[in-house]
Amino acid sequence: MGRGKTVMRKIENTTSRQVTFSKRRNGLLKKASELSVLCDAEIALIVFSSTGKLYEFSSTTSMQKTIERYQKYNKEVQENSQQLKYEAANLAKEIENLQTSQRKLMGESLESCSVDELQTAETQLEMSLLNIRTKKNQLYREQIEQLKQQHMTFQEEQLLEENEVLWEKCRSRQWEQQNQQTEMALPYETSPNSQEVETKLQIGRPERR
């Protein structure tokens, strides 16, 4: 049968607790040493026993350098954390101001506004309406130009098709006229199969018989 799961709780017996501490401390130090060698990691391990005795391990020549490095890193992390908190607070404030301004532009929460603030909001709304109308008119003009281009293209296609039909008719008419002229000219031409008629006409006095 396999070993049961060890319950993680304080060992009440002092002797057993000291034996377990010694065994596991040595195993922990061994694992730290192996990890530093295998993974080229910088490791500093500090252990205080229940009696206040110090045990330490450092993968470098100086434990103090590793501690200073940790303190420097921890300081940078804290400074970055403070900077992030400051930026987050500023963003939250900006969001709140934008939401307040939006409500005022929508005609809400105007009780605390002064005349100057209301005048400023009115000016902003008028400028916004002017920009919206300008953009809308621009889009209308672009759509009208597109429709004109499409209509002109359609008309050009129709004209090209009609022109092609007229050319076909013209070529057909020319071909018919050429055929008619050829047929009219055929009866007056000498056929190669025609027979020559011999005559016995003579010039001068007829011969005596």
The rough form would be described as elongated
**Spans of 5+ residues with little confidence (pLDDT < 50)?**
none
| Helix/strand order | HEEHH
Strand content range? under 5%
Q: What is the mean pLDDT?
A: 82
Helix content: 55-70%
Radius of gyration: 55 Å
Strand order of the largest sheet: 1-2
Provide the structure class.
Answer: mainly alpha
Tell me how many strands there are: 2
Explain the overall architecture.
The protein is mostly helical. Helices cover 67% and strands 5% of the residues. It has 3 helices and 2 strands. It has helices at 14-39, 63-105, 115-185, and strands spanning 44-48, 54-58. Strands 1-2 form a two-stranded antiparallel sheet. The longest helix is centred in the C-terminal third of the chain and has 71 residues, at 115-185. The chain is elongated, with a radius of gyration of 55 Å. The chain starts with 13 loop residues before the first helix and ends in a 24-residue tail after the last helix. The model has no long low-confidence stretch (mean pLDDT 82).
